[in-house]
User: Which sequence fits this backbone?
């Protein structure tokens, strides 16, 4: 592998270096002026997966591998992925750069900081929190004299109705549920608070859904930070902090160009998790890529019930840009791991586990597009196993099924898959959304729930009250972003394979006014992961030459 | 003003672009391999000031102006400054880029993010906190089975003896005094905690005092995060997190090259505050600059009682690198503001306020070097006022006194000052420290206290107990870092001008084992500022073209 200077990668896709701001030799931010709305005619390939197991399906490897393979067979292709969060890097999962011959490089730069966007986002997010608590402090301190002294209107913040947590890009369990406000001095300013991981920030969702800097500015102005003593919204605009937050994100709006081990261009941008946010790279990154390449391969987080559903019903609804085909990634091992029968034989494991694959193919087909199954190959896979999966996939509605050997062989190892993808994209089928804007929130939630196989939705009293309030306030036209476990198609990580039929519980709802969706939380959804018993950070260090090891 | 590509700035000082990692067109990180120990023969000029007033003395403007002026008169000069913290940028003070014709540009890049070092530092710092609380959680959760399950020794963290706060680079008062640990679930992990501003982090002091990446790694290993149930230190090495923290800082060890409005090279690195930390740019930045230029102008935070004292007794003690002369910056307005007489006339104001200047000249002269007074000129200054200050300065031991008109005129406006500085540097006087390593901690503290004019040091019972414990544990050989208000030479911001004689109270001491000093806190020292009633963020926004305004 030989890394090329990033300007050479740009030249491959006719991207002028005038649009680049380099961050070292191998990464550059791309100016949004490079988006050519007329040239925007590339085809988008959406990569999703079966229900993920702790071992992972190699979805990023396959996404990168397909982009390399398309170039290998002579097409011009770019991959679009999210920036990895430091939480998993130092926690359990490790980096998110792909691997083997299908990796984004330099891997250390991708996994740590990159061009600083996540740090900027954390900073912009927390400025709003500092500003809100400072206003609470000064309004309490000066009481009736506040307006006279400051020239500002009283916001009358209800300290128990602050809905904007702080964020940090680490797995810091101890910050999930805290008390802030100078406890020792004055209980008046003390209130419960929380930190989420940055990937869960509404600001991260906003970055990924914005069309340009002005759109970002408008959306940030709309975010609801808290409610006042009369239950009215207090937004970032009300606090006059939206402009400064946008200034902090002025450069974060620009995606970053990198390359793969085969020098295929990769555009990295934003990083919303797919369990607690919408789980897709940015609209801007796709727009740039589609105006530069014939094929753009993008990855949606977790299984098709998670990132893929949100790609369509949130991201594509906002952008108007739809894929030409959907690739469902799985592995032989992962399919077997979905089997829940007692003491099965090897082939029985595959047969019963494949039901999960079948569900994901069916789920992907709801959106009206050709679905291809990609088996991320491992050395121990047998011909019989692969033949079984292929015939199962075709019987269950996939237009094709092919292995990807990209980890071991790079683009060449996924070249047959790439040819089949190109063919599938030629069908030019018209995509459709799961629900229209005009359905009410309960109808939208049921539409998604029914794709999981749920027969009923059970709202907690809190959820129902919030739902009715949101409808009354005119937010019923927004799409829903279901926050749930990725480990099951249902809400319950213990229910493997295909959980239907079941009742889907809704614990609570949250308005994400800036992002433009309603978060629907099923049970306790983790918005701040914790470090495990044997965290990855223990193995990470610098060596004698100053190189990073163990990442 | 025309900005030059950063490679052209590097060429001016014979710095090969092989050593640069560009971050946009106008900023580049400098590889430490560029340090040539043989070529390191430039002269260092240390810029300090009189006791600062809220209006400021223009110390950064003068620092930048002197570096421009040295180039104007034909010398090769570089300025070394700290990276601004976002706290003041969005709070009250605004950016720290200098101004007028003596500004570091692009100002927006300097003030926001730059090359991401402060963000990296915040992240590395908070990883240790997350790791420590996670270990507490797992040891509590698994009890006697912890070692069996994890293969790791029990650390037996005393949750009430955690001395490593978290940090955030904002003025967030509400995080000064918090409770963390999932309060709702299990009180066992709940404990008091705090956030400091990143500039107060021991890690920031370490970055500024490290000689290279390996030194940084060793120092990080030594930082004390908490004490165990038997009162023994738990370090970052014990928690096996020091390597990962260093990996996060792998690029932050490299200073950033920028330029002034007159294209003079500026090296920006680290950002410890001078009230709560040692208040100087990095040893590495000085090393690089001194191997590239004949003159290096560096700024120490706040008055000479703050950053300058720490420059000598902490930074120079560590590096072995001393200045050739000291510049004390003041303004007519600031000198007048130091007057505390009732109803004075204009000249009386100047006469009584000048005592503060006299004290700072005297204080600077303790270190054995020539002291020059620089008056940062304003349009309203009169010839009589300037003549008075000049004669006062000379009578009080300054080798010279000259105005700096760098704000209005750039290097030309400080060219006479620069000539006088060059002349003063030629004296080659030998610098001396205030105290030797072998003095005990009380003697060291008294040595600094007596320079303030204190006749006695009054230790709280807590301070005395910690002092004796530190001596007993063998930390008596470390230098002391006095944390106090910058608004007075004493510990009390209300005591203006020259406070002697007085009794200096010491509230508590803290070991900064990685940084290699003992923090001595006088009264309540603010380690997390708050946002004021009319914070600067209100005026910051992006305009229609996406440019940042109001910074």
Assistant:
């Amino acid at each position: 592998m030989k890394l090329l200077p990033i300007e050479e990668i740009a030249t491959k896709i006719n991207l002028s270096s005038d649009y680049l701001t380099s961050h070292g030799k191998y990464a550059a931010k791309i100016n949004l002026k490079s988006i050519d709305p007329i040239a925007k005619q590339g085809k988008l390939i959406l990569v999703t997966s079966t229900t993920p197991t702790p071992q992972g399906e190699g979805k990023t490897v396959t996404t990168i591998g397909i982009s390399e393979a398309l170039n290998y067979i002579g097409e011009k292709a770019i991959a679009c992925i999210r920036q990895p969060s430091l939480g998993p890097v130092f926690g359990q999962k490790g980096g998110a750069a792909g691997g083997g011959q299908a990796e984004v490089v330099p891997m250390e730069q991708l996994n740590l900081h990159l061009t600083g966007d996540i740090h900027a986002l954390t900073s912009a997010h927390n400025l709003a929190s500092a500003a809100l608590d400072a206003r609470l402090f000064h309004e309490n301190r000066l009481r009736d004299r506040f307006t006279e002294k400051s020239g500002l209107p009283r916001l009358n913040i209800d300290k128990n109705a602050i809905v904007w947590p702080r964020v940090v890009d680490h797995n810091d369990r101890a910050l999930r549920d805290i008390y802030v406000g100078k406890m020792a001095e004055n209980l008046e300013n003390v209130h419960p608070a929380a930190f989420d991981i940055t990937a869960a920030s509404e600001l991260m969702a906003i970055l990924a859904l914005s069309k340009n800097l002005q759109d970002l500015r408008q959306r940030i102005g709309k975010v609801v930070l808290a409610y006042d003593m009369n239950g009215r919204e207090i937004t970032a605009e009300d606090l006059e902090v939206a402009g400064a937050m946008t200034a902090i994100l002025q450069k974060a709006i620009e995606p970053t160009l990198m390359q793969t081990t085969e020098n295929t261009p990769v555009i990295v941008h934003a990083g919303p998790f797919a369990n607690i946010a919408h789980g897709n790279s940015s609209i801007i990154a796709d727009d740039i890529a589609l105006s530069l390449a014939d094929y753009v391969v993008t990855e949606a987080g977790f299984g098709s019930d998670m990132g893929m559903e949100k790609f369509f019903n949130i991201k594509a609804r906002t952008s108007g840009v739809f894929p030409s085909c959907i690739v469902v990634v799985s592995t032989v091992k992962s399919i077997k791991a979905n089997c829940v029968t007692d003491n099965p034989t090897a082939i029985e494991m595959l047969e019963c586990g494949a039901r999960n694959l079948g569900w994901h193919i069916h789920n992907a087909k709801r959106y009206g597009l050709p679905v291809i199954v990609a088996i991320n190959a491992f050395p121990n896979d047998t011909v019989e196993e692969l033949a079984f999966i292929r015939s199962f996939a075709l019987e269950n509605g996939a237009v094709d099924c092919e292995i990807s050997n990209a980890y071991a062989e790079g683009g060449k190892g996924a070249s047959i898959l790439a040819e089949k993808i190109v063919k599938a994209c030629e069908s030019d089928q018209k995509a459709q959304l799961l629900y229209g804007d005009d359905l009410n929130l309960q109808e939208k939630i049921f539409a998604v729930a029914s794709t999981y196989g749920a027969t009923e939705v059970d709202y907690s009293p809190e959820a129902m009250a919030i739902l009715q309030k949101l409808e009354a306030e005119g937010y019923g036209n927004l799409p829903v972003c279901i926050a749930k476990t990725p480990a099951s198609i249902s809400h319950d990580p213990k229910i493997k394979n295909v959980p239907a039929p079941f009742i889907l519980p809704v614990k609570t709802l949250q308005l994400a006014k800036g992002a433009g969706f309603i978060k629907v939380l099923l049970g306790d959804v983790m918005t701040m992961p914790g470090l495990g018993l044997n965290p990855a950070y223990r193995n990470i260090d610098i060596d004698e030459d100053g190189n990073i090891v163990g990442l």
